[in-house]
Amino acid sequence: MRHVCLILLALLVTAPSRAQTVGFAQVGSESSWRTAFSADMKGEASRRGLHLLFADADNDVERQRAAVRGFIAKHVDAIVLAPVIVSGWTEPLQEAQAAGIPVFIVDRQVDADPSLFVARVAADFNLEGRLAGAWLAQATRGTCGIVELQGTAGSGPAIQRHKGFLAAISQFPSMRILHSANGEFTRDGGRRAMVGLMEVTHGLQGVCAVWSHNDDMLIGAIAAMQEAGLSPGRDILTVSVDGVPDIFRAMLAGTANMSVELKSDIGRYVFDVVQAYLAGKRDGPKWVVIPSHLHIAADAPAMLARHTD
Ligand code: GZL
Is any ligand 1 atom within 6 A of the Cβ of residue 262? Predict the structure, then answer.
């Protein structure tokens, strides 16, 4: 009998602990920033021995809600959600809470009771918009007619970047957004939106700058402006957000001027928060703010040296 107990004890002590399973409901693959963020999350989960269930919503919020419900049905240890849009999350989050599954909001934001998720790990989108507006104000001495490329309607970054940018330029009576168009955060969307803006402004007549909610839409818009014989980065200033490698290549080519960096390598911060919670920590911050830094052409060589792709 004693030998049996010792053998059982030995088995229990050496039994491999079950890898924790995390369901990650990702927005999609709409931009090069998003692709980099997904790769970082997968790599970090792997390095930590976490079993990551990855669901790509392809920018479809119904598909994303179904993915979250699928994670609940699988009884995952935690859910990480980068919500396509801010609305419609109260019920799925209540279901996760009822199932005893902690939810962590990353990258974007939800319009729901904060008690329904453990924490948010994301940059301050409103600050990004204010930084872009402030840089443009100093670059134009407070006089500029602007066209705006907007990201996905109803998404946290589109809402807050717009508000932040307006807050900055509203201090200058001769700065205003003349027209806005939605480019869905994609390069093709930005290109199509810029074609429409060039039509309504007769080739960007009276326009001094393009403000884009992300770099990828601006990169598409730059191609459209060049095809129309315009000189983005010179005659038309550009300000955007993300700090992806191609925007720094555009800066070196003289076709872009400024980008507010959005860090994509935030998987370590996300899983630090998730694993601390699963280990019993209950006093962490509700919002882990990822810092935003403004970059111009002079920074481009150093920023490109940081990226291997
Ligand atoms: C912002 C992020 C945005 C990026 C875009 O945190 O959600 O979504 O700025 C991406 O490139 O599409």
Answer: yes
Q: Is the CB of 161 under 6 A from ligand 1?
A: no
**Domain 125-263+297-308, CATH class in plain words:** alpha beta
Instruction: Decide which of 3.40.50.2300, 3.40.190.10, 3.30.365.10, 3.30.565.10 is the CATH code for 19-123+264-291.
Output: 3.40.50.2300
How much distance in Å is there from the Cα of 117 to the middle of ligand 1?
Answer: 21
Nearest CA to ligand 1 atom 6: 107
> Could you tell me the distance, in angstroms and rounded to a whole number, from the CA of residue 82 to the centre of ligand 1?
10
pLDDT, tens only, 211-234: 999 999 999 999 999 999 999 999
What's the gap in Å between 155 CA and the centre of ligand 1?
Answer: 9
Say if ligand 1 is within 6 A of residue 157 CB.
yes
> Is 109 close to ligand 1, i.e. is its CB under 6 Å away?
no
Paired tokens of 47: 């390095």
Quote the ligand 1 centre to 157 CA distance (angstroms): 7
In the chain, DSSP finds a helix count (H) and a strand count (E) of: 11, 12
pTM: 0.93
Distance 122 CA to ligand 1 centre (A): 11
- CA torsion angle for 156, 157, 162, 166 (degrees, to 10)? 100
Q: Encode pLDDT of 264-275 as tens digits.
A: 999 999 999 999
Which atom of ligand 1 lies at the shortest distance from residue 186's CA? Answer: 12
19-123+264-291 matches 125-263+297-308 in fold: yes
Can you give the residue ranges of every domain in the chain? 19-123+264-291, 125-263+297-308
Range 60-69, long-range pairs (CB < 8 A, 24+ positions): 60/28, 60/84, 61/85, 61/88, 64/25, 64/27, 65/89, 65/92, 67/23, 67/25, 68/23, 68/25, 68/92, 68/96, 69/95
